[in-house]
Design goal:
- Helices cover about 45% and strands about 10% of the residues.
- The protein is α/β, with parallel strands linked by helices.
- The strands form three sheets. A seven-stranded mixed β-sheet has the order 7-4-3-8-9-10-11.
Length: about 400
């Protein structure tokens, strides 16, 4: 082989400065090309009085691609209003109604579901910085933006194929891409935004510690996102029926793919949402769940769900169980809910966990789990109580085993 045929001698490298210049030029070219395509795409709708056919997520991506810098949610909103007459007119009408209304209510929504849609799971934005006391800054990579806008920028695809004709390896890869969303926990709880849709807790976006007001004015900290306020560390996945549509296609796909979704992640429940969810799942599906975080919440009379959960918890055989509990007003809310359920009995107030019979199903669940962890806000002995119950179970099992074993006779 003639080494002189190689344009660059073996072992030589392009200067770093030249590489950086070419990288910047290449990136700039891609951004400008994408802006040109977006400009052509939205041009017919800029002056139109009709509503543009783009989703709120797509409108947000347009704004981010056009900007040379990260944007706040307000900046994205303003760009959308300026870019389309339809939204500009709606904003003016909303402002006028707000100014002239005798009710002095807030201005009506102009761009549907904004800024909530900035937290949609499929929207490939990233948070440039996080300040608990200030607005977040959003940015987007050019490649991710192009993929997100592909229904507008790519030609329609033609032709179909039978999915089950693919090899098992390829099918499993598709299942993982669709269903294995993240290693972070999935929330299914009413407390975040009054909906039972699935939510992804992006723990990489959490502040290092979330300061929370403690009991009697004390200040404590928590690194458990279940008690963090809803900010950009919660991403909305939408209803489970949409997320799990793949499992509804046929029995074979459901059998092959369901364990990838149910067995590979941690589900976070409050009592009410857990009761609602488990009664909808089959026993076979429950057996696939491996990791659960349960918030034993007594707010909003959720304690009434504790006792009803017993039979729904029976099929669960968990690898990991985390019990999360906030002591602030826990017994007050529990007693209030109990008296509301049984107003004629005038029950004495409960002040210790040993008096809460409704906790027994969760202790039984902890007995069956291979690993049990706890998170207590303002620790007041809940973990100690549960672990004592588990130790008593082990002691009784050891006594039972010794009684059943044969007596060793002296020679």
């Amino acid at each position: 082989m003639d080494d002189n045929l190689s344009p660059i001698p073996s072992g030589s490298q392009m200067p770093v400065a030249q590489l950086e210049v070419e990288s910047v030029e290449n990136t700039t070219s891609k951004v400008m090309d994408l802006r040109k395509e977006i400009s052509d795409l939205i041009a017919p709708w800029r002056e139109s009085a009709e509503k543009p056919p783009f989703t709120t997520g797509e409108l947000s991506v347009f704004a981010l691609v056009y900007s040379d810098y990260p944007l706040r949610a307000d900046d994205i909103h303003l760009w959308i209003l300026n870019a389309f007459n339809y939204y500009k007119d709606r904003a003016l009408r909303s402002f006028v109604r707000c100014c002239t209304s005798e009710q002095h209510s807030g201005c009506s929504e102009v761009v549907d579901d904004f800024p909530r849609d900035l937290r949609e799971f499929d929207l490939p934005v990233h948070v440039m910085c996080y300040d608990p006391d200030g607005p977040c800054l959003y940015g987007i990579a050019t490649g991710a933006a192009r993929v997100y806008l592909r229904r507008w920028l790519e030609p329609a695809r033609h032709g179909t194929f039978r999915f089950l004709d693919l090899s098992a390896e390829l099918r499993n890869r598709v299942y993982e891409l669709v269903l294995k969303i993240s290693d972070d926990g999935l929330n299914h709880d009413w407390q975040f935004d009054c909906t039972y849709e699935l939510q992804l807790v992006r723990e990489d976006r959490l502040p290092r510690q979330l300061a929370v007001d403690g009991v009697a004015g004390e200040e404590t900290t928590t690194d458990d996102p279940f008690y963090g306020r809803e900010t950009d560390f919660i991403l909305h996945l939408g209803p489970s029926s949409k997320l799990l549509a793949l499992l509804c296609t046929c029995k074979q796909i459901r059998q092959e793919a369901s364990s990838i979704f149910y067995g590979a992640k941690t589900f976070r429940f409050g009592p009410e949402s857990m009761h609602f969810t488990l009664q909808e799942l089959s026993s076979d599906t429950k057996e696939q769940i491996r990791s659960v975080n349960i918030a034993l919440d007594t707010r909003k009379y959720q304690a009434k769900r504790f006792g009803r959960l017993g039979r729904w918890l029976q099929p669960l055989a968990l690898e990991r169980l985390k019990l999360t509990l906030d002591h602030r007003h826990w017994f007050h809310n529990y007693n209030l809910g109990r008296n509301n359920r049984l107003p004629q009995q005038q029950l004495p107030p409960v002040s210790s966990f040993s008096g809460v019979d409704e906790l027994k199903p969760f202790i039984d669940l902890a007995r069956r789990a291979k690993e049990v962890t706890f998170f207590e806000m303002n620790a007041r002995g809940f973990e100690d109580y549960v672990r004592e119950q588990l130790r008593e179970t082990l002691s009784s099992e050891e006594v039972g085993a010794s009684e059943d074993s044969p007596i060793a006779l002296d020679d």
